[in-house]
Input
Amino acid sequence: MIATTAKRETAVTGIVLRQKLGQPPAGPAQYSASPDLLLIGAADAFDPTVFTDPTGYDWYFFQAPVIGEPNYLYVRGINNNPAGIQKARIYLYFAQSDQILDPTKWQSTGFTVNGRAQSYQDVSAVSKWQYVATTTPFSWTPPTPSTSGASYYLIAWVDNSASPSPPTWPTTPFASMDALGAYIQQNGNMVMLDTLYRGGFVRQFPGQTIAAEGTGAQTSPDIIVFGAAAAQDVSALASQSDYDSGKLRQTLVIGQPNFLYLRALNTASGAGAARVYLFWATTGQISPTGFSGAGFTVAGVPQNWVDLTATASGQVMVSTVPIVWNPPPPPTGQSYVLITYADASASPQPPDFSPFGYINPAGATQLVATHPQMSWLSATASSPARPTASDVASITTPAAAHSYYVGVQLTNIPTDGELSVSIPGPDGANTVVATSMSIPASGALIAWPVQYPASFQTSVVWSYWQGATAPSGSFGISVKLLITG
Output
């Protein structure tokens, strides 16, 4: 078996395909995640020109292939030839996941170009640093895998020579995926794509798996709108039964702080992590450049993302401390849409939606459909009586675990009003959810015993509804955190 351990990539002069996103600069070895193999699915791309947009070049465009049906597939690259003019030929192959270590099983059949059986295309550039892409998509019809549960990898080879020819692959199987990755790293002409998304997978619709084609449906069960009260026990949202139920929680309470939990499935081969960003839009402005991350807080601090971690593959991850958002009334006749973007890289960055500013709602739907990193949820609205006052206050515990009383101190608050308090904790036993409380005394301290770990960050979210008596004089509601042990 081949067990190469070389760790230096071969320099390529000409049209270059990236072996991983973020190359250069160097990032973690991800040699089965080329961003330049663009597997669009059974419907063609809404606008192939975005593939070679300077900002769009930093986006993945792929989804799981539809088995037994023609799938659209583009390949792109960048020309680094100082001479400028460059022509290259790109060859395509595919392999089952249980056969990927054996190059003799890599196949070039099943691809067509303009209806003709062909597994290669030529691309040309006239200047250095020009982005290029196949102008005509490949059509690939993947057969039903011969092994139950198997998926597919795509492999590409670029030949910048004047007389291109197909590559000669090794005839001996690789000893492991690490050995195959080292071989790819040695051969700068070669890239590979695992056609299943590996990372924090946020579903676009109930029942979706990473092997299912995206639809762009605004029905993600993993964007969880819990309304104006926090979840008492977040671990229930991470249970397999709740995940499998596909239940939609989508009702926002307008004019009050809402608790939003983000959930994802770890589809990496082992332990994994992902940063999930949250955005909002109204149905009247559904263009991606209109997606906004403003107004969200986490632990009382402005922030539109949460970090999720898993210790094993297949684990359901959910945010313990939620995102809090007080949505204003949307424009008349419109509603809200919540959008997520998951980044499982070592250095997650918020997405740049600027390449997609011109697209219409149908184009935005296809953008989401072809990005397993994205999902969205159409929210409904509830508009009960708005509170007289509400607040989201940040609390951070010392760098040691303690027992506490946490709650609110009232000052001259009439007793005929109502108060609701939510304080997300590290677990169900130490989460406070108290709704529609009567006010025991105008100067009461209302607090609950909790235990918090060292340096724990959360927020106290309260809402007050005035009764028949209006507060007078110096009045207010403040947050208290008292160490008791």
